[in-house]
Amino acid sequence: MSGRDIRRVVAQASVFPNTEKTSMVLRIIRAVGAMGVERVLLSTDTFGIAAGVLREIGRLQAAPPDVRVSLPEIEFLTLPHPTGTAADTTGYARMIAERCAAAVVLLGGDGTMRAATPGLGDTPMLALSTGTNNAFPIMMEATVAGMALGLIATGRVPAPTARAKTLHVEVVRTDGTRRREIALVDVCVNTVGEIGSRAVWRTDTLRELYCTFAEPAAIGLSSIPGRILPTARSAPTGVAVRLGPEPSRTVLAPIAPGLLEPVGLTACDVLMPGVPVRVRLAGGTVALDGERELEFGPDDRITVTLQHDGPRVIDVPATLADEHASSSEELISSIAEEIR
């Protein structure tokens, strides 16, 4: 669905065609196969990505023996009752985790990663960016990412144990009903009264912003606190800012590709883990990872809490460095012996 993001209209966000996603999947499959992975589980879809993979695999397997590529066995997974919503992403993540997969790679944006998180359990995740405004998934060549994935899957490098930070949002309605949601990057409280097109891009509507991390080189809402209080993914804390028409400081932030906006800040503070923060705005919508998901009124009570219970995220450079470190020690020692 990211291909129809409104930020491709209001900004210069790039279009990521499904043919390129198909190519990325194929490059990952070839890379993990070269690293020794024997079996791959692949979700099916309605955009032709899995179908394109199947066609290309058939072509590769039909090639002459001298140029034929050795590929792992591929099993295509299908949900029993697909809905065409984010619930499908959760369902596929759960299905793969229940098959005891050693690791999972997801292609998409922040919203895709957020949807997959509840289904992953303890399965390590490698998040590759293919969307519009992405802070959580990384931009990296799929072949290299597949190498790291293969190292984890074959046990040559230990799987990550640390969990990503999350933001837990709880809405308590006047009738006592509760709704709970999570975000991986940011929770934005804004004055827009309806969910509408979901994507948040008008900075004059922003009032409260809570982030798990805030990197100065990021794009999207988390870039706002990244300009004044940079907070690393590995830091135990998050960051919270309040915004409004009478700011004490204004920063120029890249809200979307090609869209830099002045944003007025009235307050900024460290967000401590496990401490609920109550939303002050009397009514509007709450955006999770850049997309409006919740509407609320003056009688609703909303809290945001930073936690350390997110997915186990594979760090590609660290994984590759870990593998090369062990092999390099043996090589260096053997060369040293020859020199002596």
How would you sum up this structure in a few lines?
The protein has 340 residues and is α+β, with helices and mostly antiparallel strands.
Tell me about this structure.
This protein is an alpha+beta fold and 340 residues long. The chain has two domains: 161 residues, Rossmann fold (3-Layer(aba) Sandwich); 142 residues, Probable inorganic polyphosphate/atp-NAD kinase, domain 2 (Tumour Suppressor Smad4), CATH 2.60.200.30. Helix content is 29%, strand content 27%. The protein has a seven-stranded antiparallel beta sheet. It has a four-stranded antiparallel beta sheet with strand order 6-5-15-12, with no helix packed on it. Strands 1-2 form a two-stranded parallel ribbon. Helix 2 crosses helix 6, helix 4 crosses helix 5 and helix 6 crosses helix 8. It is globular and about 70 Å long. 39% of the residues are buried.
CATH class of the largest domain: Alpha Beta
Strand content: 25-35%
Radius of gyration: 22 Å
Question: Average pLDDT value?
Answer: 91
- Overall number of structural domains: 2
CATH topology of the largest domain: Rossmann fold
End-to-end distance? 62 Å
**Low-pLDDT residue intervals, each spanning 5 or more residues:** none
State the total count of DSSP E strands. Answer: 15
